[in-house]
Amino acid sequence: MKNPLFRQSAATRRDFMYGMTSSIGSVALTSLLSREARAYPGPGAQAVHFPKAKAKRCIFLYMEGGPSHIDLFDPKPKLDELHLKKFVRDGKAKSAMESGKRYYVKSPFEFKKMGQSGADMATAWEHLKTNADDMCFYRGLQVDSVNHPAANYQANTGNQFGGDPAIGSWVNYGLGSMNQDLPGFVVLPELAQPQGGASNWANGYLPSQFQGTPLRPKGSPILDIHPPKGVTKEQQRKNLDLLAKINQMHQEKNPHHGDLAARMENYELAYRMQSQVPTAVNIESEPKSVRKLYGIDEKPTDDVGRRCLLARKLVEQGVRFVQVYVSTWDSHDSIQTAHGSLVKRVDKPISGLLTDLKERGMLEDTLVIWMGEFGRTPDNGLRGPGVAYGRDHNSKAMTVWMAGGGVNAGHTIGATDEIGAEAVETVHHIRDFHCTLLKLLGLDDNKLTYYHAGRFKQLSQFGGTVIDPLIA
Amino acid sequence: MEMKINWKQVLIVVAFVQVVYLGKASADEPSQTGAYSKGEMLYALQIKPLFAAKCNACHGDEPEKIKGDFDMRSRDGMLKGGDYFAEEVVILGKGDDSFLYILTTRAEEDYEMPPKEADALTKDEQWAIRDWINEGAPWLEDEIVLAIQDKYAEGVKVVTSGGLSDDWTNRRYDKADIWAYQPITAPILPAEIAPQQAIDYFIGQKLQAIGLPPAGEASPLELARRASYNLLGLPSHPERTRSFVQAFAENPDNAWRDYVDTLLSSSHYGEHWGRHWLDVVRYADTSGFANDYERPNAWRYRDYVIRSFNDDKPYDLFIKEQIAGDELYDRQSSEGLVATGFLRMGAWEQTGMSSATETRQLFLDDVTDTVGQVFLAHALQCAKCHDHKFDPIPTQDYYSFQAIFSATQFSEPEAAWTEAEVQKGMEEDRRLLEAQYKSAVGRLDKLNRKKREREKAWFAERGLPYKSVSEAKKAGADPSQIPQDEEIVMPEESGLHRILRKWKSRYSWEKDRYMPYAYSVHNGGTVLHKEVSRRLPKPDNPMDTGELEQTAILDGGDLNSPSTPVFPAVLSAVPGSESIKLPKDPEGRRLSLAQWIASDGNTLTARVMVNRIWGYHFGVPLAGNPNNFGATGKKPTHPELLDWLALEFQKSGWSVKAMHRLIMNTDVYRRSARHPDQRALQEKDPLLESLAQFHPRRLAAEELRDSMLAISGELNRDLGGIPIRPDINMEAALQPRMIMGTYAPSYVPSPLPEQRNRRTIYAHKARGIRDPFLEVFNQPSPEFSCEQRDSSNVTPQVFSLLNSKETQDRSVAFANSIVTLSPDESPENWIATAIEKALGRPASDSELQLFCEHYHEMLPKHRSAELASVVYPTSVKRDAIDEVSGVPFEFEEELFVFAEYHPDQSFADSSPEVRALSDICLVLFNANEFAYLY
Hints:
Shape of chain A: globular
Strand order of the largest sheet of chain A: 8-7-9-1-10-14-5-15
Largest interface: A-B, 121 and 128 residues
Low-confidence stretches of chain A: 1-46
Shape of chain B: globular
Strand content of chain A: 5-15%
Largest sheet of chain B: 2 strands, antiparallel
Largest sheet of chain A: 8 strands, mixed
Number of strands of chain B: 12
Structural class of chain B: mainly alpha
Distance between the termini of chain A: 39 Å
CATH class of the largest domain in chain A: Alpha Beta
Mean pLDDT of chain B: 92
Radius of gyration of chain B: 33 Å
Oligomer: heterodimer
């Protein structure tokens, strides 16, 4: 590892693994793999730190914008009393949220105890309530920033400033790939990129094959996966054949330059991926009943439904980590309308996903996470038109939930104060939550490290504590 | 496994000074070590420093937060044990059974100590604990410990301003880890070695030592290509290559020297080496984070850097200008002001949602760490919360260094254009921006009118006497008599209103691009802006505006825990720093810092820069981490050479070009990339550090794009000016992206080919939207300082280089240029020209035959193909979600540029011959020989 060139050629061996199929003989394959194992100090597929962990893969439903715990999963009847009364926030570091006229806002949503476990859920969750007993709610989480991009980066990479590897990259680095033909970390963004952009799924300092591959919801799933219009398949094949020949001639003159073979192989892989990727992401062939379960072909659930179904299909095909983005929960103006329509967008698709995974027996070894970058405040400030029944950002309280692989389903862990302003019970920083997610997937944050810029780096940044009550 | 051992070795060295004394102690009689027992010796020399480095962070440093109730501050505390292990932690005399020892061997699952595997103790360290317990775990007073350490400990102490604990202040360093703090010493050259031969001498010494003969010389064709890319980032022009090869046949050394000189005198040199510098300083044209606002004048800094390299500006001056250009010259000096843009290169924003004091601290932390990494190869950030774990940098130094910048404030004052600055293309660009701005304003007006009409209607329907909401409010109407926004504004209108408001404000700030403002700093008090979404003018009396900061150590890095006040100072571990007194007054602090950094006596600066230069020439720097000369950075492979170069650099008047000449006019630079004895190379130089052969490298992202443009003849070689917008993947360009509260406008390319097809360094570099082509070929993201680029080899690169419309356009233009120039030539000659231009060498017969067959096979198919021209959208419909209502809506964005966009010549509109030849050009652009440099 000392020499960048050595590292580079070793890395390139592995770089192209994700598209590799039968064209390399088994002998070559073995030698490539053994070489790769030596080249990486990280544990790789051969070493799961917690062999008893149930989850082997993860679907991460990322609710961008900061969903309101107070209106979805953490009822605060006290706010009914305080509604529109003056609110004072005492912050040492003044931002817009600590100044101006502020007032409490009650939740416009009705709550009920759902499932046998009696989980608190807004009644707006007409579908998800049926999954209540499979879910583990956590109300003790805190983050550092009330800024969207910084908090997005922290939720996704552990580092507020971006540039570090995303969780999906770490998990793939730790567990390795289950399907050499597909990327191990797939992101299903909305049409619009989230705040902070692609750094939310970047590989950071990990080798580039651990980067999240965004599959675009419209247009070609991967940029430039198809040649420009007018280029025929035959033309492309002939070009590739010619390229292979001249590359062959070049390699004969440079037999010791290791990168050349890897790069040649990449061209063949890319050619195959052109036909494989569209098949892998095709949900049109799914039975009508399944499509219905996810709310596909109906408004307003079609878009999220498609991406949830695709997430299931991808993990079924061996993709290790799929992240689905749903925006934007940033409801400063009207919780009722904005959160109301968002719940309608996601309720059926997410419930459908949990139900579908369960019916297929996949929920046992699939970890499903639902979270945003932070929660929301019990109060609001004056907005353009005056008093608005919305909420600001809250880094001190939020609700996240998990389902499937090894989570303590049917329980609500932690609590916030009586107005939902701050977590007060089983309080943990997001670094601890990251350690917990890794442990659920069989990985130990303290062992899953990568040497970069002078020190061993890890998802939790400087180490953290596993939140045991979240694990069954 | 091999790897692991390597890292552990590194760890041993960095985390704890190995004390060799132990071996001696067991051999010698205790009496020989004076009054101290073996156990006491162990405690003083190994155990105490070990606990301080590896255990006390959780078991004593913060008494209120002791983990597992196990307190290691005293012997009693240790003997008592903690929550999980009580008396069995230390069983006196029985090291093997004591859990203090057992846990460090990591045999007890879930209780491995220290918890992080990367911190694991070495076998020697574990045994020291065991032996110490066997000896009765003696504990000594600090003075005795010090006395023993002074007498017997190996390693060296480094005098600093002092750490937060005595353990840290008194700790010892392996000499190898503090090499960069030793004075730069002139290595002794044998009398017969002339200075021009010194590099080959040092490299040769090491090769001789490992018994590895070097490879022979590369061919002149290879050398021509190597040097051209290395200095210009562009392929060598075939004419220039030919004349070089001819001259080389007659007198290789002269021909080579002249060739290098010619390249160095090209103004494209500054573009390429400026790019290296911009990698290190994280240049971007936008600010990142939620809004990713434009930095409309940042490009002047980019051009300043390019000019500085072209002019061979002495590096010491380059340092002073970037850190303190405003203090160095007359306040009106544009060059000085523009240069200080360096201090503001990091991502930064202040929105209504963030605390201005936190944002201010983020800048101070960023600038402290950046100046450390860029000029001194030290990531100072590590010392923000605690004394540096590995390097002699106490937290005190971190904040004293930071204090230098406590009066440094952002501003964009007017700074007249200099003669060297390029204003070409502004009018054209401004016209398009104005069109965008006017459209946003017009649409906003329309929406506002609509809203007013609805308000009026709402009141009329209810028989209320008001015409507008504001009127009703003024009249004190009951809230029930005032419409809620939802009642009079449709979700798509509310969403669109939000978009247009934001765009209007963005566009109006972006107009600053054409104004002579400098993205710079001044000295003054700190003004905490609630929100920054426009140019920051310089206050009239900066010293009386805002609060003059008094820097204090922030305990644990916590902004809310200021403790001891500190005053501006440089790094105390660097020799000579004790005599450096920085002004207490805010004025001139940065200049004094810069003078210290740029002084001959600074042991870091010259080494850091020559190491970077060397790295860009050979792909492998002499010290492997150009941003980290501390204990965890890789040690120099040729320390004498590094010092020799550093001194030459200073002697040359800090001339970067002099370094290029020195380095390139050597055998080692001219060496072949094909060592004849690969087996010997593998055996004797497994880490490829000896430079027995030249290391091949893949072209960087910008080199790939620039080369294709140069080869196809499309490259507009103009220098400087406002950022241009090249064609990028259209789907990525039109991909909506979220910015704070709404959506950003689309990326639109510049309308004319000559505007778009310029060198990549002039391309608008937004943090929030990157050109996918450049990104996939490892253009670093501007989040961190990039000390050295990665060069990965991943499948998506194939999609970009083989399938993208941009590469197809280059291939068509390339083919077209050949056919247009000599329409009557045979296809074979066209192909020969294509190969020579793309690969920088004449075509071989077998290649020609292959390519010709391909051409003739495909030509009939191109003749019969029916192709549709590309249609460019003048507006785009986009899906979005209204933040207020959560309702999805669609909006239209006008893409003005495409109304006057001149596409590059397209595949569809080319003749079958050009298309057939363009396929060959495409194959050449994808060839390994094109992508790699030998």
